Structure formats: C-alpha cells, structure tokens
Queue: 2 jobs
Job 1
Amino acid sequence: MSTVGKYLGLFLGYLYINAKGLLEYKVSSLIALFGSLLNSAIWLVFWWVFFKRFPNISEWQFVHLFTIWAVLNVALTLVSVFYNVYKIPAIINEGKLEYYLVRPKNALFHLLVARMQLIDLLEAAIWFISFIILKPELPAILLFLLMSVISAAIIHGFLLILGSLGFFLKSADGIGTELYNALITFSTYPNWIFRGAAKWIIFTVIPAGFISYVPVQVIYNRAYLWILGSLGFGILLNVIGCVVFSRGLKYFETGNTFVLRAD
Amino acid sequence: MLKSMDKYLAAAALSAKNYLGYASEVIFRSGFLVVILFVFVNLWTVTYSRSGAEIIAGFDLRQMLWYLVFTESIVISRPRVHLKVEEDIRTGAVSYALARPYNYLLFQLSVSFGERMVRFISTLTVGYAVMTVMVRPYFPDLSILPFLTVTVALAMMADLIGMITIGFLAFWVEDVSPFFLVYSRLQMLLGGMIVPITLFPPFLRKLSEWLPFRFMVYAPAKLFVNCDISQALSLMAGQIFICVLLFLIGMSIYRMGVKRLDVNGG
Amino acid sequence: MCIDVNHVSKQYTLWKIKGWTRRERQVIEAVKDVSFRVEPGRALALIGPNGAGKSTLIKLLCGILSPTRGSIRVLGMDPFKDRSKLAYHISSVFGQRSQLWYHLPPIDTFLLLGRIYDIDRVELKKRMKELVELFDLSSFLYQPVRKLSLGQRMRCEIAAALIHNPKILFLDEPTIGLDVVARSMVIDILKDLNQRKNVTIILTSHDTGDIERLCEDVIVLNEGRIVLESNIREMRKNFFHTKIIEIEFAGQHADLDLPPGVSVIERSGPVVKLEVNLKVQDANEVVSRIVAQNSVRDITIQDPPLESIIQHIYLSGDPAGREAEQNAQIDG
C-alpha cells in the first residue's frame, strides 16, 4: 500500500468509528444542532428587520447577509471533521499527545482525524439546502460550495496556528479561544461596517474578511480573482500552522517545556 | 413577613461576597464583550451616518450604543441557575430542601441574584471602560439612579425566576437545555438584547409586548439611556407584576414536580 | 540486546513566573545518569515513589522525549529518531488513560488499530482471534466499553496494545483501581505473555504484589537515580534481615521472655506477632524456645512483604542502596 493509501485508510478508519459513535449520543448532539440553528435563526431575523428598515444602507441586501451566514456555517461544519484542531492546547497540556506520538503515523495528521463531529454535517446540509432555495442557480451553488471549502481551510489554518502556540504558551488556550470568537463574530457582519484599521485587521490578523466579504464578491459580483487570493491565504495559514506545530513538537520532545509531568 | 425575608437577603449577600473573589476573573475574561461592542459601535455608527437619521427607533446614536452596553451586561452576567436546579432534581438534593425552613425557589433566587449582581457590576465596568475609549463617557442623571437600581434588580429577578422555572422542568425531562435555549434566544431578540424592540415591524413588536422578556432586558436599559421618571414607575409596576406572575407559575410547577416525586419516588 | 540505556540524563526547564515580568529559570533533572540493559524476554519492574522518574524513563524508551545526555537503543534503534519505525514493534498501556472508544464495543477499537498499524485484514483477523482466546474476551467483545467492568476493560486495553504483535510492552500502573480477582487475572495473562510468547515487559506499579508475581528483575529509582538494580529473588535474600513469626497461643500466656533481637510488633488477644532480627537471632531457635515455654495452637514464619524492603531502601537512601549492591556482590 502506498503512503497516501495508508493515510487515506486511517482517515476512513476514523470516519467509520466516529460515524458509529455518533449513534450513541443522539439526543445531546441533536440538542446542540437545534441550539445552533435557533441561534442563527434569531440573528437572521435581526438582519431581516435591519434590512427592512434600512434597505439602501449599502449594496447589500438580506440575501447577501444570509449568504455569509450560510458560508460560515457550512465551513464550520467542515472544520468539525477535524474536530481536534479546536483541542490542540488541551491535548498538549493534558498529556494526550503521547497517544499519537507512540503510533507509527504522522502525529499531526493522526490527531486531526481522530475526532470528528459528524452530526454537524446535518447542519451543513440544512444551510446548503436553504441556500439552494434562496438562489437556485447552478454557478452560484458551485461557487458557494467552493467558497465554503476555502473558508473552512482558513478557519482550520487559523485554529492550527493558535492551537500549536500551546506548545510554547500555557495561556494559548484562552487567547486562542478569544481570537477564534473574534474571527467568528466578525465573520457574521458585513465588511462595510468596518472602517480604518479594522478594515485591515479583517484581512490579516483576524481574517474574517475572507470568510464574509470574499464569498459575497465571488458569488454575486463574479470577482473570480478573489478566489485565488482566498485560496492562497488558506494554504498559507495551514502551512504556517504545520510549521508552528512541528517546531512546537520539537520543543516539547526536547523537554524544554512548562508541561512538567516529571512522574 | 419582613422578618422571614431576612434569610433570603442573607443568602444573597453571602453569595455575592463569595463571588467577589471571581470578579477580577470576569473582568479579564471579557474578550467577547469587547469584540461584540466593537462590532456594535461600527455597525450603528455606519447605519446612523449612512441613513442620515438622527433618531432611530427612539434612540440617537449615543443612546443606542449605551443601550446595547447595558443589555449585553445584563444578559452576560446571567449565572446558569437552571442547570443548578436541574442537578438538584437529578441528584435528589431537592428533596432535602423540602425538610428545610425555606422556599426552594426563593432560596435559589437569592443565591443566584447575589452572584449576578457582582457579575453585572464587573461586566458593566468593563463595558463602560470600552465605550469610554471607543466613543466617549456617558453620565446618566444621578436622580434616576435609585429607580435604575430597582428596575435592574427587578429585571434580574424576573429573569432568574424564569430560569429557575425552566430548571423545574427537570422533574419531567432529563435535559432542560433545549427549553433554556428557546427561552434565551427569544429573550435575545424579543427582549431587546441585540436591538431595541421599538425597531421591530408591528407584528414582532406586538409579540414582544405580549411576552415577559422586555421587562428583563429592554426596560432597564431604556431607563439607563432615557431618564424618564414617570415611565420608570409604570415600568416597575409591570416588572413587579411579571415577577409575581412568574413566581406563581414557578411555584405551581414546583409543587406538581414534588408531588410527582412523591408518587414515583426520588 | 533488547534495551540498552547508557548514562542517560533528562532535564526539564521550568520557568517560574515571579511578579509581573521576572521569570526564573529552574532546571529539574528528572533522570540522572541512568544505565541499564534488558535482555529479550525479560520482565522488568521500575519502582520508586512519585516523581522518581519512572514515567520519564518510559517516555524516553518510547521515543516521546529525547534524552539530554547519553544514548538509548531499543531493538537496535534510537527511539527518538526512529520513533515511527519503532512504533510498529513496541506498545504501551497507561493505566489511567484508555485507548478504547468508550461508547463503542472493543472490536471497533481493534479494527481501527489494525489501520493505524497497517495490518492486513487476514492477519488482523488471525491476531484478533488469538487475543480474544488468550484474554477470554468473547463474551463482551460486542458490548460498549462503558458497560464493561474495570477488569474486563483492562483486559481489552492490554489486548488492544498487543494487536500489532509488539516485541516490547510498556505498562504504567496497569492494575490501578482493579479488585483482587481482576488484578490477579491481568497479572496471570501478562505472565503468560512474557513466558510463552517471549514479550519483553517493562512495568511500573505501586503494587509490590504485582511486581513479585510478574517480574524477575527490578530497578528501584529515587529522585531520578537508580538506587538498586537487582534480581527480585536476590533482593529478597539480601534485604531480609528480619522474619515475622505469628503465634496463636492456646490459653493464657505468661509475659513472653524474649531474647535480644526479637520484638513484639502486634498483639491482639491470643495472637502475637514477633519480628526477629536475623543478624542477632536465629528464627528457628526463637520458635523452639517459645513452644517449649507455652502451649501454642498455631505458629507461622513469614518473610516481610516486598513493600517493607522497598521502604527500607528508600529510607536508608542512596548509600544503603550502594551498600546493598556491594553486599549482593559479596554474597554472590
């Protein structure tokens, strides 16, 4: 078997076991799904009220806003397939990393595929179907899917970098959570409300602009060049994340680390 | 009657004192508040300037922003008392409370109220600091302060009684969180947390007026930015009515639950 | 040679935060100049109090950590550099940390491990059949792990660790929290594995009973150093300066007239426990003397438990360990 085949096999093995585990705690995951959808619904009502009251506030209408919510949520559910990316600092601090280190597979790949929150894919389906109902045009649907995948890559890379800082900083978990929350919050608002320095921040430190503004530009204004920009940024974040992780791992292994579990 | 309220006041004071130690933690963990306020300042500044309106939904820009700081502080400061009640019912601790000389609902209300006061004041302090930096400071009329304190207290009590009542559903269901989700999301929208209810189109506004949530969030925040004493009095009357109503509903659910416990065993 | 550890030290750097900005560097040496060898097929126990460096040593042997000084060879490989390659040949069980999927039956974890270790289907089926028989898992192979007893779970845990046929098995507190029956079963299986399948076992445990039953060799660590490296049988011989005599008297017994070197350590009704210092007194002589003077219903002579020997080693500290080693050499 080739290396790629082996790793694909590992992914499928975890996909199978996670899917099987899914049936075990149906109720709590369905409640979480319900809560997430309800939360989105309430915000969408707010935006519906907002655009009804201020129809000419910008070139955006309710449909644009719905699109960024849909892209963000589909992207988040895709990130849930690599659910451990949220848990990297905890995995390091609680000594769970060793489980992956004593295995013959790449530790980062292994840990990323080990936990999947597959119930979230149901949410992705709901958002996807509602987008189709709102905009039943094939090019728009395909672009929607593409931009969701790219947005997922950006969120994933962002989390990977922040999480891997956990090798160096004990407080990485807290800081990471704050920055992640900021990313998600900024991604649910139209970009045109940000002025001055904030305009730059959402395309750099907290790349919410790639998740909200760019998909709208691509889907509604056919600004296809932006796709390359977003894709490049997503790849860049993930590459940096991998580098930070492997540097951190070295640091961890040589033991120059605060994670002192001498016993 | 007054004498018997002593123990509840003491419980609230003790809980507040106990929580004081965490107040600094609340302040350091307020990244979310900073982010959401930053977004709100941007959103409404742009909205006011682009639409050219001086007054939107009865608020000018400054009032709108301070209104939102206040509603966020009220909602964020909420302790998870419904989960505490759920746990008490699941573990059977609630049956021990029957043997004690206090009303279980009022006792939980006192304890959570004490905690919430500390959290509310620390959250509001952070919000105030953030807004002072981002916009400019705001000084409400001092004469309104006593009224404001009372409406805030009544608003929180109404909310906490609502949450405890949701906790009581644990006599029948295993997990009360879906009920709380509906409650809190409705409150977020129809209580006026993310936007004043006066912005709503007529049917949503009607709905909001028929529900108790506006007394928990909208009412005190509105008073904070718009000091109108005659309004304050009618508001408080409404809040007291809601508190009593929710208390009666809560107590009857509790009695039914306890009876059920009696029949089916704990 | 299976494991060869040569003058290995492991340091951790700890940053202590003092005040707002000052940070103080503190170096902690978890393992200090440790050397030892393990032949294939042996069973070695690592013992020592908390913080003695047992777990650090195991992590070094698995390649999770790299040594600050010295060299390690495991199955001819450098565990840190060849970690992924070595991983196919070793395995580990950590008592407090499960690798089984809690809500799923153990069989699912076994199948997943097959993927992790690239075992082909035919081979995997064969291995699983063997392990199911060896560990007697068939009755609960398809039950969710959460419904299994702690003992059943630990058997599954060890079976899971063996699915890729490792040559070395590292066990960190495998019997923690188990009741007497379950513990005994786990130890029996491990012993069988060690003796019949020739799997090298490296074990840490707080339970000296486990160690006595399972292991031939023992390394005692204290504060990162090897205090004693010995064969268990030899250790007993060299550290047994005492024996315990338990006597049940038939009726009222007069005040015992005890010779020097004998002391009473417990007294409950007609039963008296004596400790005899063998350097001063012969145990048999003490027994015959007591039997001659009193009417005795029952009498037993026991060795003190391994526990107390280890305690003795710790208490007397490093020099005693050295002394013991020297004694052992002289005796040998």
Job 2
Amino acid sequence: MRIRVSHQTTYHYDSPATRVIQTLRMTPRPHDGQHVVRWRIDVSADCRLTTQEDAFGNITHSFTAEVPTDQLDVLVEGEVETQDTDGLLHGTIERFPPSFYLRETELTRADPAILAFARDVAGTATDPIARLHALTRAVYSEVTFDADPTHSATTASEAFSLRRGVCQDLSHVFVAAARSLGIPSRYVGGYFWRNDGITAQEAGHAWVESHVPDLGWVAFDPTHAMCATDAYVRVATGLDYLGAAPVRGTRFGGVGETLEVAVNVAQAFQQLQN
Amino acid sequence: MAECFDEMKGADGSVRPAYEGLDAWLRDLSPDVLDQRCQEAELLFRRIGITFAVYGEADSTERLIPFDVIPRILSSSEWTLLQRGLTQRVKAINMYLKDIYGRREILKAGVIPEDLVFQNQVFRPEMNAQKVPHDVYVHIAGIDIVRVGPETFYVLEDNARTPSGVSYMLENREIMMRLFPDLFSRYRVAPVENYPDELLATLKSVAPETAAAEPNVVLLSPGIYNSAYFEHSFLADKLGIELVEGRDLLVKGGVVYMRTTEGPKRVDVIYRRVDDDFLDPLAFRPDSSLGVPGLMSAYQAGQVTLANAVGTGIADDKAIYSYMPDIVKFYLSEEPILQNVPTWRCRDPKHLSHVLDKLDELVVKEVHGSGGYGMLIGPMADKGKLAAFRTRIEADPKNYIAQPTLALSTCPTWVERGVAPRHIDLRPFVLTGKDTVRIVPGGLTRVALQRGSLVVNSSQGGGTKDTWVLDT
C-alpha cells in the first residue's frame, strides 16, 4: 500500500516566544515491508535542522529557532510504500540485543495489578507468541479507548487502574505486562491508515514490538487487537513513549502557548481531507 | 569485631615512624591549647562559610561539617602504593566504559552478566556508540579507600559520577597551615594547593577538536539548593572559570553558548556537577529545570565535552563493584594492586543464603543507595531491624550486596577534651586527562566521630581531617 502522511503541528503564542528548541523523531526508516518514497520536514522559523541518530537508531532532527512571531509551524509530510508481513519485522536497525528491552522505565513499571493481569493472561500458555496474542486481546478488552483521562506523562500503572487511555497508554500497559513475563518489548510510534475512509486524525499512532525467539521482533497493536499490517507506518521505537516521542522540546519566553495538531493519513491516491 | 589497625600506634602499640613527630607534638601540647585551636578552626570555617546541606531533614539548612585538627599521615611508600593502585583502577574504569558503550567485549566474554548492565538504570543507552574526546569518560574520580592493616587497603567505592569533597581537602590544609605552622615545620608535607591547576589542565586537555586554542571551561551547578553548592562556587573561583546554572547556557546550531553581557560565548568543556537525569530535559527527565535543553545533541555531535561523561554510573554502580577486580584483569591483563572488599551478591542464590545466615555479622547495602542511607550494619542492629531488613532483601535480592564488617583503621582524633582513636577512610581524587593521570598527594580523610562508629559520611555525623602525604 502506498500511504501518504501529513502531520502539521502549529504552536500559537499570546506573546511571542523568544526561542524554541526541539528534537523531532518524525522520520521513518526503511525496513523489509516499508519503503520510504519521499519525506520532508519543514519548520516555519528560520533555523538549521541538525540530523542525528539516537540510541535506538531513530532519526532525529534538532533545531533552535528564534521565533519573532506568534506562531510556529512544523510540517512533516511524505509517502511510504508498505507491505503486509503479518507483523514480522526484518531489516530493522538494531542497536541493542533483545534482552535490553526487558528494562523497566518509569512509564512502563509493572505494578502489582499489571503483574497479576499479565500472569492471568499468560495462563497456561507457554508459547510466547500465544501469550502475546492473548495479551493483545486482553489489553484491548480491558482498557477502554478514551482520550480524556490520560496525558503524555501518564504511566502504565495509572492508565491500567483507570482502565482507560489512548494508544500510548494501551501500549505502555502491554509493554509493562510483556516485560514482566520475560518477553523483551518496546514502544513504537508511527501512523495508522484507517480503512473506513476517514483520513483526518488527531494524532499519530502507537503500538508495540515484542521479541520472540525464532521469529524475531513482531508488531502487536493492542488498540486494534491485531498484528501490524501494511496499514502501519513505523517511525520511531524506544523503551517507552519518551524514547520514541515525536517531539521533545522546550521554549524560552512566550506565554499562552496553544497547540494544534492535524494528522492526515491516506492512501496515495486518496484525497486528503481538510 | 576484629582488632583494628591504628594508623599511629600500628599493630603492636609502638608509634609508627610517620607519626613520631605528631606524637611528640601532641605530648608537648596542653589539652587547653588544643581545645582553643579547635575553636579557632571552627571560627575560621564559619567565616569561610564551608557548609553542606543534609537532604531529608525537616530543617535542612546548611551545617558546618565537623573538622578534626589532628592530621592523618601517610608515608611516602604508602602513598606510592595507593597512587599506583588508583591509576590502574581508573585506567581500567575508562577502558571498561569505552567498551560497554562500544563493542561490549566484556559482555561477550561473559565476565559481567549482560542483564546487570542492560537492566541497570545507570546504563545510558544514549551513550551507545558515542565517541568522547581521547576516550576519557571519568575525568574526576573520588575513590573511597579503607585500610584494615599495615599493607591492606581496600577500595570501598568508585565514585565516578560527580564526586564531591575536594574543597574540604583544600580548605582543611589551608586552615591547618594557619593554625599549626609549628607542626608543619616538623614534617615535609607534600602540597595539595595545586589541585585546581591540575583539574583545569585536565579539563582543557579534553576539549573538543572544534575548540579554540584556549578552550572555554565552565562549571555547571544545580544551584544553591544542592548540598555541594559551596564546593561548586569554591572550585569555580579557584579554577578561575565561570560558575553557571542550566539557564545560563543555551544550545544553538548544535553548539553550546554561555550568556554573557557581551553576548553569547561558546562553551567547550563543561565540568558538570548536575546528575545525568537532570542534564537535558530533551534527552532525560522532561521535568528537569536544572539542565540545558539540547545539550545531549551538542554532546553527541562532539561540539562540547562533558566531565564526567554521561553514563559513568555503570562503572561505580554497587552491582558492578564486585566485578572490578575482573575488569582490571580483563582490560589490563594485570593483577589489581588495590583489592576490593570481599562482596556477596544477593542476586546469586548461594551468596543470598550465606548473607541471610550471617546477617548479624555483615554490612548490607542497597545497590543503588548512597551516602550511607538504606544500609544495614549487622552487628549494630537490633532484632527488629534485622528482621525488617531480611524481609526487604528477600523481596528484592538483586538490589542488595553484602560485605563483612570491616575493622576500619583508626587515627587519633580530638574528642571532648581528649585524644582518642576514631575510624577513618580516605577519598583521593584521580584526574584523567588526554594522556596523563594526575593525583594530588592527599585526599579527603573522613572520620566517624562517634566512638566505635563506622559511618564516616558527612550526612550522618562524620567529620573530616587534613590528609598528609610525606615527602621522603
């Protein structure tokens, strides 16, 4: 499938910010089943984008911009050709052995409730792939999708006790539970193409990858209760959201910041909606 | 507890050569005079303003660290041994860090279990495959040493992150020279005053290639609420460099600048006393306001040197500590000159059962604790405390290590109008630059002022002494 992505972030300031500094993880890399046809990042302010690779092999762009106006736009836009690999990943960039991804983080700490949930879900299944499929379904049915109660710093434990959250929270719960079962797992940020014709979205998507002996890394999406398909554009991975966050930044000066995000994910021949 | 070695009286009670002058001097001196000098010392410290803050105390205002006027003396041959051992150890630590963040040969060889590194929060993935100038990670190490016999020194801890205490080494000497010129005239004591010069030379030697001939070095402090703030301002002053906080620095176009009244000035080397977690909200804790946004990006691009490097905690972590003799052998193919304290790792079931059996004889430490907190001293603990600690260890064995209760050496100390032996340790400071290791002869001697106490940490009632290394 050829997927066209456009991701526009607009910052409004009541009084102009003097300086904005950001690190973006918004550029996909190719792997088997994902070919980046074209991709660009455009920042409205006058600045230099420095391209680097982070610890996990994600491409980062950093910039420091003086913002003389009351608005800053960051536009990311491109096209990716994808193939369905039944969630199996090959040809990805790996900087650490799988065991590294057993490491707990603040956002993915398994509290007693998650530990019990994971043990329950694993049940009698010993085969890791069976456990992971069961976990995908269980997180999907246990945690209701709801954008209201959580935010970007919500932990797996908080989201799990609410039994509510967005794709980021469901992924954190999955990762915490899978790691507690001894399955190396990581967080993935990217885009998801919807097959219902709706292309306008409020944010990017998040799912997980777990490492299974003999198979390698396999992508699971607890928000949709399925393995990743050719509807997924994989952009960045990390131990948790913070490691794969599309934007980490700060600003000096400027008050009353408001943020507008417009994401469009369409098949290349589809008309983008406004 | 075993009989402990007294630095002055030795094993057989006869005064050891290095202490003969001190012994004679002490006998000549009336307790009243010594008492008066102690009060003068305290007055001087108050005037200079050497203080430290203790975290977690309700009234956590700054306190004066107790100073003992009787010096701790090391002979020239004892120092030579320490110097060789410290140089070897720090060399191995730097090679280990380069390897851990590079080829990971020591993991492939199975010398250190992989999970001990990868599952460890102080291992910083951000440093993976990152080059640092001249392969130096630990520019400043404060290695804690204890002595248990005439020839036996153990390394207790390798402080490889942001070790503090060197300001006391310098100030203690200055005060001693003012108060006791007569005692100095009886000895040839190696100077320590050149430490700031040695530190500055070390820092300049590791400037990035992009730096000008005269690199700009700054000291980055978390600010006045940090317990070591006095030391930060003291050192910046002695080094003649700017003392900055996060908000004084900015990153632009991948370069770090310092705000000055004449506009931004490029920064080449940052002697940072801010912990990894708080260095850069874009790379580490997003809620940190102590750091510099974008600093890691400039660091990764090789535009600035951080001293110490990021991620050095994976060298001084208590879980890694017990492997240090193997680390020395692995990288240098040499036998370690300085020994480790024998250590049981509770993660190992055999070690764990030994530790639980002998809990009342051992010192148990949390792998990630510091400052003597979260520690059990078996022989000093009552039944309730032992039982509580047993439960904690059993719940999370991998978080604990245990060591025998060491008979730390003692040194004569002035206490309540008399001289009595008190337990001491030693923290020498090891500087590693482009191609030299520099160790100023001396260090910080900490003393447990309570009779029988083994806890020398300043946060728990320990004091300090001047440390003399004798020129032959």
